[in-house]
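Re: the request from the purification team.
They wanted to know what the chain is likely to look like in 3D before they choose a buffer screen. I agreed to run a prediction and write the result into the notebook, where they can find it.
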Amino acid sequence: MPEPVQQPRVGFLGLGIMGARMAANVARAGFPLCVWTHTPGKAARWAQEHGAQHAATPAEAAAQSEIVISMVVDGEQVSGVMLGDEGVIASAREGLLAVDMSTIGPAATRAIATELQEAGVEMLDAPVTGSSPKAQDGTLTIMVGGSQGAFERVRPLLEAMGEVIVHVGPTGQGQMLKLINNAVGAANAAALAEALLLASTTGVDLDAFERVLGAGSGGSAQLMLKAAPMRAHDYTTLFKTEHMLKDVRLCLEEAQAAGAPFPAAAHARDLLLAATGRGRGEEDYCSLIEAVEGLAGKRL
């Protein structure tokens, strides 16, 4: 009888809305797991609940891991957990693989990957899409940038968290595709909000609106996921407005550098910014309906 395959030891850095759910799926899949997060005491509580170890610093988590995953907010946080005095690089050793699943943009990713590589640590960028329900179910879409060899090494681990896992090219390309995806999603959400307000203002039945658009060329994931919350003004957070705003801004920076116009994303950015200005930054990005209503002086 063949020997059972030994799962690699995993360090997971970041236990927010997405990270906590993703790490839970890693633990359920049987990977030996050590977790760390910024909030004092949270990693210890999470580890006790899920049968994992916890670490006081990212360096401590990395020291006992073969693969370390980061799932934090932005480039500054990724740089801190990877390159800081108590970051992954502080316990760097040949063969350690770092996988950043945050959304930070290709430029920041390449810069961090270069510094890690000089310390003998290879890095993949593997941002995700699907929001918290798919993180909970382990059905995220994961787009991976980096070497083919590292991708194959980490694929079984990614399969514990995702359903669609695609190697999209060299370092940074996972980030670029994620930014484009989120910008398109934000643009669709903006169009949906404006269409809902137009339909409501002109007397169209909104149940009929959803049914007809869903069966026709106006259908989209945003219609399916966000029409009902927009109508109810229910901004229960699945993906924060401020995080979507960050992603769209990053996409527009890349578009400007590439000389590629993306006015639909620019419009979505302005609505997300206005919703954030109305105090909705911590709530779900479907709150951009508030900005549309404010422009029109009307409410659904």
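For the purification team: The chain has two domains: 10-169, 177-296.
Please add any questions underneath this entry.
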